[in-house]
Amino acid sequence: MQVTRALFDEVMVPNYNPQQMVPVRGLGSRVWDQDNNEYIDFAGGIAVNALGHCHPAMVETLKQQADQLWHLSNTFTNEPALRLAKKLTDATFADKVFFCNSGAEANEAAFKLARKFAYDNFGADKNEIIAFYQGFHGRTLFTVSVGGQAKYREGFEPAPGAITHVAYNDLEALKAAISDKTCAVVMEPMQGEGGVIPADAEFARGVRELCDQHNALLVYDEVQTGVGRTGRLYQYMELGVTPDILSTAKALGGGFPIGAMLTTNKVAPSLGFGTHGSTYGGNPLACAVAETVLDIINQPEVLEGVATKRAVFEEELEKINNQYNIFTEVRGRGLLIGAELVPAWHGKAAQFLAAAREHGLLMLVAGPNVIRFAPSLIIPDEDIRAGMAKLGDAIAQVLTAEQSA
């Protein structure tokens, strides 16, 4: 069978529109397509490939586990799941873990737990969830409803109710909305899809205080910010704010599908026997790989290295901006970086994405106005500089084409 990009249009549901090139191999921070063209990877599978492609320790773990045990029903537990859960609880605020397969599933579990906890402790009327505009929490019907981007809900209504949205980083808006009917406030400590917008420290502390005042749980979606992305294992540690529930996925498996919801002994009992489940959650293959990922990333040299690598990105972006005056702001934390385009280029971020690919660079956007980078946390500095040279060439190409149009 000849496998080409055209086969996608023939056999796949059209909810995606992938690039015309088809990657077939990756190693470290580089990827090769079917024609053996080489690309530097600043996208990281959208903040997933935190140790790059085919990290030898991950590959070895997967091979070893593949010879031992692949799957059990959830009427059993398994050693990799228990080891991973213990390491997660030892490294975080959490006492208990629920495993699943993705960030959306981790958030689904988090939102269900928040409502069930309120139901168990305060009654059925305490069911409102407050979240933030431009937030993103997944693609299930519940998670797109809590997410603050209406475009992801359109056409799928009626959506779950008792969900309110307010402006991010606006504590007064949250004060006006929260009440004793609020069971949870859900937030990303840094909005990823919404434009790479970090929470102000004062805002984050204020959200925690308002939740405490109204007996509401604080749910942190760290699917994109977690597992070393910001230079701490989880970003709540940097903010000095402890949530009641945290969702994690993406980088947790380094590319192998896994998600987890973390919570406390106070909250966990509301997901009692039979209340929630996942056929593949806690899969031995996924948990074994994730344990290796966690062991590698949760080391001072890796976490501290995130800041030094960010500095290289910032230095190179400043050089590009000095030459082309294309960015108004570079923001984010650690190696989740957003470069907002000048107003004249708002709505056109995808043009830079396409041009970068032509020059051998893979990157992301965060909405139509922001170029986003989420590379491997251990990307070599020489790959950063080489990738940035390609970005400079891509920007020059786009600007030249605009001027000649």
UniProtKB/TrEMBL annotation:
Binding note for cofactor: Binds 1 pyridoxal phosphate per subunit.
GO molecular function: identical protein binding; N2-acetyl-L-ornithine:2-oxoglutarate 5-aminotransferase activity; pyridoxal phosphate binding
Cofactor(s) named in the record: pyridoxal 5'-phosphate
Catalytic reactions of this protein: N(2)-acetyl-L-ornithine + 2-oxoglutarate = N-acetyl-L-glutamate 5-semialdehyde + L-glutamate
Modified residues annotated as N6-(pyridoxal phosphate)lysine in this record: 250
Root EC class: transferase
Pathway assignment: Amino-acid biosynthesis; L-arginine biosynthesis; N(2)-acetyl-L-ornithine from L-glutamate: step 4/4
Compartment annotation: Cytoplasm
GO biological process: L-arginine biosynthetic process
Family: Belongs to the class-III pyridoxal-phosphate-dependent aminotransferase family. ArgD subfamily.
Record-given protein name: Acetylornithine aminotransferase
Organism of derivation: Oceanospirillum multiglobuliferum
Encoding gene (name): argD
